[in-house]
């Protein structure tokens, strides 16, 4: 194909809706002021965009308090803020799923090492990917969980984790539950109350179809984590400037530095587009996923997806016997102009879980709303011509 | 005036050169991939833009090692990375100038409090703003400096600090010197070797005329700070993904999360434009500054600028007897469509130094390359009509 076939949407969705590009360019040219730091008209208009975007996000996760929506430059920074904002000492037990991204694992590993806290892996069945609640309960009995970090959708396998079930169990032991919604928010329902999580972290540039440069976290207004979480990134806030400490109120407490109004405006446009089209986006992606899985199952390649396809969406990891994933990815790029990703996908634990360390990880195909059925067919034909 | 007269360039320069908007929109639409995480053509092209931007920045500060240029989402994040990456304990003495921004002061204050380290203010003459080297030497003798943080150009007063002199003295006592070049890089010469600083922090969206969403720091390749500074923000790097620790090499060690390729591309265009026009930009800004200072001196308002106008550029803080700065700023906006800024400008210490705490700070006028002489005249006329 002349045109790029983009199957790396888990890295960043591409393209974005045209309205996102248009809004960003407009705000860049006409409203790119320092929000909350000037009292002139343009700065106030920029501030209105930020406020409205908080409201749109709050609505998406069904919370009524937009001030509980905290913007960060990325989901990675958001996790660093949260992890550093929690209390740490030698008594602390942290649980993570084997599906976590390094944006969660690396800050946790560093701080656990430093403080002598202990990191545990939540138990999942290696064949079906099912959560082993019984084994988890035994673990929790033995090591009372303080913090539980769960990804909502695995960035390697597309597995939708049973967040509600895990959170419910963890809360029984008094744990704080933090959700990585980077791959889910937008096309999987994220209702903070219903899921029972204290905080959800989001990335603007993935399934929200917004731009790079904005992510953040949303605090469940019914959680008491708000009072517990210390500020962890310090700097100017445009408020209370004579004070060497950060302001105490949300969201200012966690938002240091000039807000990226251009990225936030892009996210604003994306969220409005999403709201209009959410049902269609979800059903199209589900359909494309099922088609792709079906075709790949016919080919007999090794797929790393959960047994229950109801718990799977958008992302497929695979390997073909006799081929390294990076070889396949390279030929798909060079000969067929298909963008996929090979390797470990910034997820340190999942490859031991999947048994893919020795293969150099997996070949990952990830779908977006703008993919078409004929692109999947073209990918399958191309793959066949390489490996058979 | 119908058209906005923008005199808040110290917050963020506005507008940017048209090429910056164009490049950002282009990359957003056609090259917005996850740099370093995919091996397909688009991702490689994006990576080339990042590499070239590092080279342009390295060239600007006259270092030969582009890998010593670290990108962060903002100067604020860069300072948090640096401050958290240094060693801290009860023995540490940190010196700051009274002109520092809260992006420096707040992270330092937090970490000093936590570790029992001591924060000192470097001595400057309150009338002339001159650095008091003699008093500083006495202070250094008594409290051996470990870290010295100096802003290059004060974001409140436009004072260009004698960085070389301060750094030379501090280095005699073995201190690490960190330069806040957020307000200087671009229009004041920043030669890391010549200035004798270990690290310089930059903001893409100020005098580099790039966009929001990209800042960072540049390590002096002759400094040994590189080996000392620990990683402080953790996450995915697209490399060595099975490792729970960050990679050891520069710049990857300090760059976690998806790079903001759109912002970096905008900065890339800005740096090329800057390189072409740097002499004209500097001389125009100097000229405008002198004109503005001259006019304001004629009006007899209180100016907070250094005695030696050779050490002053672009930013003027002022107050008018009988008026609160926010009143003047508000009327300038509402009645004359002039954007200025009133208050404390995210600088906690300088208002005690200037004696402006009780006034509610200052009215700040800050110039950019795109300001014109007639805008200054219009501002002066407007100001006169308000206060006389």
Which features would summarize this protein structure in a list?
Aspartate Aminotransferase, domain 2, Aspartate Aminotransferase, domain 1, 7-stranded mixed β-sheet, 12 helices, 40% helix, 2 domains, homodimer, alpha/beta, 388 residues
If you had to describe this structure to a student in words, what would you say it looks like?
Chains A, B: Its cofactor is pyridoxal 5'-phosphate. Chains A, B: Keywords: Coiled coil, Pyridoxal phosphate. The structure is a homodimer of 388-residue chains. With 388 residues, chain A is α/β, with parallel strands linked by helices. Chain A has two domains: 5-16 and 278-387, Aspartate Aminotransferase, domain 1 (Alpha-Beta Complex), CATH 3.90.1150.10; 18-270, Type I PLP-dependent aspartate aminotransferase-like (Major domain) (Aspartate Aminotransferase, domain 2, 3-Layer(aba) Sandwich), CATH 3.40.640.10. Chain A is built from twelve helices and 13 strands. Chain A has helices at residues 18-30, 41-60, 75-85, 102-115, 133-142, 163-172, 192-195, 225-228, 261-299, 325-336, 350-354, 373-387; strands at residues 5-6, 69-72, 93-96, 118-121, 147-151, 176-180, 199-203, 215-219, 302-303, 315-319, 338-339, 341-343, 362-366. A seven-stranded mixed β-sheet of chain A has the order 2-8-7-6-5-3-4, with helices on both faces. Chain A has a four-stranded antiparallel β-sheet with strand order 9-10-13-12, covered by helices on one side. A two-stranded parallel ribbon of chain A has the order 1-11. In chain A, α1 (18-30) runs antiparallel to α9, α9 packs across α12 (373-387) and α10 crosses α12 (373-387). The longest helix of chain A has 39 residues, at 261-299. The two termini of chain A are 20 Å apart. The model of chain A has no long low-confidence stretch (mean pLDDT 96). At the A-B interface, α1, α2, α3, α4 and α9 of A face α1, α2, α3, α4 and α9 of B.
